[in-house]
Automatic annotation (TrEMBL):
WD repeats lie at residues 1-16, 27-69. GO terms for molecular function: transcription corepressor activity. It comes from Nicotiana attenuata. This is Transcriptional corepressor leunig. PROSITE patterns: WD_REPEATS_2. The keyword Flavoprotein does not apply. The gene is LUG_4. Keywords: WD repeat. Gene3D superfamilies: YVTN repeat-like/Quinoprotein amine dehydrogenase (2.130.10.10). It comes from the Eukaryota.
Length: 141
């Protein structure tokens, strides 16, 4: 099993859970501190990351190559559970929902509360509501 960590040294580190003493790969390219990472739920090796300068990168973790760079997330990135067609990101008081294939924003939510790194999906956010639970905002799209 492989896991990824974000770092203030502007890298994403890949680790083997069976041998966690040293990372086996470093993904370099972010302009600022890396704030969040998330693996795609079905495409092995596809990894998203965001930095504190709003930069989002999609990586081929197997090859160590950056496949796509775009703007719109400085706190957290999360792929849609089960399918991974969408990527949620948060920056300031905005949650963006990107289409992963077209690199286009499908939805943009502005909230009154500051988002403290918690843009996430809950089974693709059901019930057409916005709710606030335990410090998390949940949206239906």
């Amino acid at each position: 099993m492989v896991f990824a960590t974000s770092s203030f040294d502007r890298t994403v580190m890949l680790w083997d859970a069976a041998k966690p003493s040293n990372p086996f790969k470093s993904l370099v390219g972010h302009a600022e501190h890396v704030m969040s990472t998330d693996f795609h739920p079905t495409k092995a090796g596809l990894l998203s990351s965001c930095d504190s300068n709003d930069g989002i990168r999609l990586w081929d973790a197997d090859e160590g190559d950056c496949k796509l760079i775009f703007k719109g997330g400085s706190r957290q990135v999360r792929f849609q559970p089960r399918f991974g067609n969408l990527l949620a990101s948060s920056t300031g008081n905005v949650i963006n929902i990107f289409d992963v294939e077209t690199n286009s924003i499908q939805q943009k939510f502005k909230v009154r509360l500051s988002i403290s790194g918690q843009a996430c999906f809950k089974f693709l956010l059901c019930c057409n509501t916005v709710s606030y639970q335990n410090g998390l905002l949940f949206f239906d799209i």
